[in-house]
Amino acid sequence: MKKLIRIILTVTCLFVLASSGLQSACSWRSSAGGAGTLNLYGQDPLTLDPALAGDSTSNGYVMQIFSGIVRLGDNLEPVPDIATGWKVSQDGLTYTFSLRSDVVFHSGKKVTAETFKYAWERACAPSTASQTAAIYLGDIAGAEDMLSGSAGSLSGVRVVDAYTLEVKLSAPSAAFLSKLTYPTAFAVEKSNVEKGAYWWDAPDGTGPFKLASWTKSRQLALERNASFYGNKAKLDKVVYKLLAGIPMNLYESGEIDVADVSLSYYDRVTDPAGSFSTQLVITPSLSLYYLGFNVEEAPFDDPAIRLAFSMAVDKNKIANLMFRDVITPAGGILPPGMPGYNMALETTPYNVAQAKALIAQSKYGSAANLPKIVITASGYGGAISGDLEAIVYEWEQAFGIEIEVRQLDPQLFNYELKQEKDNMYLWGWIADYANPQNFLEVLFRSDTSHNVGGYSNAQVDALLAQAATETDINTSLRLYQQAEQLLIGDAACIPLWTSQNMYLVQSYVKGYRMNALGIVALNEVYIEK
């Protein structure tokens, strides 16, 4: 979604999008013919500005209210959305998009090629302070100049006519179209944006739903956009109950129609004799939960220390005892199902004796000489997640040291982590598009905004650059595999787990499907009478 996408690890699995509302679950019965209201659990979005949204909660709403030139299809490939199609020059540098002429904002104002030129230039303007523009629009010629403040427009974007947009890239990019499916590239209406800093409290989008109402910390409601150009929503309304209680309890009482499942309920929802097993849906998730290193400060500027800490985490044991194998230990950075996933990857073994030897051979000589280790994590209230507690315990037992965990506000975690990070940080990522670039380059190339730990490796950078511009997909994937192997060998991070989407859906709710990126097309959902 990506967006910087935040993956929230509860006691069992990675949850991508929580949503909600305050109406009675019986409200769906008020409309026949498959219409009605879908009630979900949720949290307040931090923003509804497509150029700024960088967390999964905010993006979950943004992707219902706004839309772009392309979207991801059922197989996670880019397909036309506001564009009817496109042509690519032989050298792979110029894309010419033909746009639909029947697309309007919720206000009725027309969407034209000029709309996208404005939206993309606004996202790249330093004054917007987008943390995602460099990643998702950075392939466009002139984007780097705009982002640095040395240019006031995108030289690579030209309005040919009202419904034709020409886009030139600075280098060929196999993932360019996929990047345009991310909210940063979505259409925004200029006069709406110019209303002020919080214009998105009343957003004028082009998506299948409009923002009907929003009472902070209580309820957010979306209503059907009757003028939507694509598959119009079958629901009249989607109502989100914001932080209204424990989702499973709300689901059991009929207050919400969909609920994520945590480990504490795993036995109940999988029991064939129970009432929930027929409502349980489990789908793949292209996600990674990992521990990152601040390589710009001691002690993790030393690769030997990074490798030692990597070797002293028994991921299989934790996954079995704490997560009952609901999650899968990660040996590499790319999750299973991602193109380029390498089953032959040489992973880091669990070996405490070798970990101790690495520290002894380092400039520190002993774990007792290491500087204070502090891990930055998402949370509040002092209680840390069980998996992190187990990992810290393993390190303290293996090395005879004390480790501190410092928590940041979960809602601001993604946006403040780069400035607030300590020696280590606990983070999650879910793919925004099905290409290794979205993990390897976005998180570990030297100069990307999401390279939180400051990792830098010239050989990795060269491979990532070559893979990104390689037009032969098989060659590109091999290059990404080489880069991933270097990252694992250099202990750029500690991959922990990959997960799956696990949620309950009431039997009368049809068409609710979460894809591997955690996205649900709510306009395809309907209530069966």
Written description of the protein model:
The protein has 529 residues and is of the alpha+beta class. The protein has helices spanning 56-65, 113-124, 133-136, 143-148, 176-179, 190-193, 247-252, 266-270, 303-311, 315-321, 352-361, 386-399, 413-420, 437-444, 458-469, 473-489, and strands at residues 8-9, 14-15, 37-42, 70-72, 78-80, 83-88, 94-99, 157-161, 164-168, 209-215, 219-224, 237-242, 258-260, 280-284, 287-293, 328-329, 373-378, 403-408, 424-430, 493-498, 500-505, 509-510, 526-527. The strands form 7 sheets. A 6-stranded mixed beta sheet has the order 16-20-15-19-17-18.
Keywords:
single chain; 529 residues; alpha+beta; six-stranded mixed sheet; four-stranded mixed sheet; 16 helices; 26% helix; disordered N terminus
In short:
With 529 residues, the chain is α+β, with helices and mostly antiparallel strands. The protein has helices at 56-65, 113-124, 133-136, 143-148, 176-179, 190-193, 247-252, 266-270, 303-311, 315-321, 352-361, 386-399, 413-420, 437-444, 458-469, 473-489; strands at residues 8-9, 14-15, 37-42, 70-72, 78-80, 83-88, 94-99, 157-161, 164-168, 209-215, 219-224, 237-242, 258-260, 280-284, 287-293, 328-329, 373-378, 403-408, 424-430, 493-498, 500-505, 509-510, 526-527. 26% of the residues lie in helices and 21% in strands.
